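Researcher: Sequence of Bacteriophage P22, Gp10, DNA-stabilising follows. Predict its structure.
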Amino acid sequence: MPDFGFVGAAYEAPSIYQDAQECINFYPEIDPTKPQGDRGVMALYPTPGLETVAILPNQEEVRGIRTLSGGTQVVTVCGDFVYVMESDYTPKMVGQLNTSSGLVGIVDNGINVYIVDDTYRYCWFISNPSAATFTGSISGTTLTVTTVFNGTIAVGQAIFGQNIQQNTVITALGTGTGGVGTYTVSNSQTVASTAINSVSAPAIVTAAISGTTMTVSSVTSGTLKIGQTIEGSGVTNGTIITAFGSGSGGVGTYTVSASQTVSSTTIYAINWSVLPANDGAFEGGGTVDITDNYFVYNKPNSQLWAASDLLSPITDPLSFASKDGSPDDLVSIIVDRREVYLLGEMSSEVWINAGSVPFPFTRIPGTSTQQGIAAQYSMSRMGNSFAYVSKNNRGEAMIVRMNGYFPERISTHAVETTLVNQNVSNAIAWTYQLEGHEVYVVTFPSIGDNGLTWAFDNTTRLWHKWLYRNNQNEYERHRGNCCAFFNQQVLVGDYENGKIYQLGRNFYTDDGQPIRRIRRAPHITTDLQRQYFHELQIQFQPGVGLSTGQGDDPQAMLRWSNDGGSTWSNEYWTTIGKQGKYLNRAIWRRLGFSRDKVFEVSISDPVKAVIISANLKAEAGEN
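Model: Prediction complete. Tokens:
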């Protein structure tokens, strides 16, 4: 029997007797130069593996990652800390969130990084992320530095580290003059010895505050900007600059977020800010994006959404609107082709910048749909559009891609069968591109005991499962929680341990953990007549064995079902081919008889396991 369709995508139908195909940790690639039916018109390639490039110090959930405009820095949120990395992948802490779990939204406008975590909004002015890194402890207002790894500690630097209060600034030298020794900090606290990153103050000024007006009388260094936090003796913690008055960076007046009275004192600006509750029309933000230099974000559990001021992290209190085409709440926002898509629980609508004041956006007529989003973070860009897990008042858990203003289904019944009657509300998605394959990856953490990850290849329009094998030899969801392209590498953040991985086609383990790859073929049956199976040859790429260690003689494990996929045989092993054995053939013989045969092969050696096709020798029986 020639090639019998052994190579293919994942498609286990609601009844395995209709179709029992499985494709785990392989992805199909199609050769467009070959006619249908030819050997190798479709092949199975191993999904990318993982290799650690950085470990974020607090080693918690990586909640978000984004490459900043210009491509020289990448921002990550791990637990409650914000890190910036450059090409050497050294993490430098530049901010702290008021929450420590759950995905975050991160965007930037080339000036500010804007972060939302449902409950709060934050901004960081893009700048040199580190003045010094060192180890120190704090008792009261005394910082004691025991080791300096790099840089020089100085007055005016903000410091970040585990358990250090927000907006803590070095205000005076003690025994230390840039290195080991003691320093005075602005906030009294007790912090055990920890790694600390200091960031230079973008501005140091002398100023007084009366009500919400800050009057700057002199500038020691730097430039004040809207959105910066200010810190100084008597200044209310968390106060930020919200508007220019007569000052525009130097001497003059400014509006600040909190009313207070502060006599003339030294004030330090900080590039990290937790935006106050009175910024804009509401507090917090569920999802965020940017268009025409406006940050746009939504209020969780409401229909409200807002737009910041132009090229600013600050929002006018009147710059907001409602997704009011249907009564359901707004769940997610995404910008596509400069248009703002508002995805609600059961419906969607699209708005565009019309230059209005005080809120610049208006709804585009004819763009409303009766299709919402089932999971806030299941939305990810793909091709010239985006995909997400959908929901409406008739059901949920179809995966769709937006086509213009209207969604079209891309999931199959096989995918949807795994999602029915499951909790999909916490699904997360991201997209990566490697070697011409653009893949939408969607993880369902609450399905089963260990979660489930599906991957849709936008190039071939085919699905495969992408799973991690743990130390108990069980499959679980893929490690990836978020993704960015940086430094010519696809980076993935781990969902629990603070690791940043590089995704690579030439990595054949998940950060050292073996990857078990499975292909289960279609049914082989002829009107349920008996067939005798003499030989199966699977055409792997041969000669891919390693020089030493696991994989020096890579093995393929075959098992089969004689009853359509209900019960299975033992595994039978054969070699794929040691290094350089390019004529090796992977063959199994004396495979018995069956009326409905299903073959399944698996590989777990860390090698380039490519399946080109398979051939079967069989003959019909008498009944």
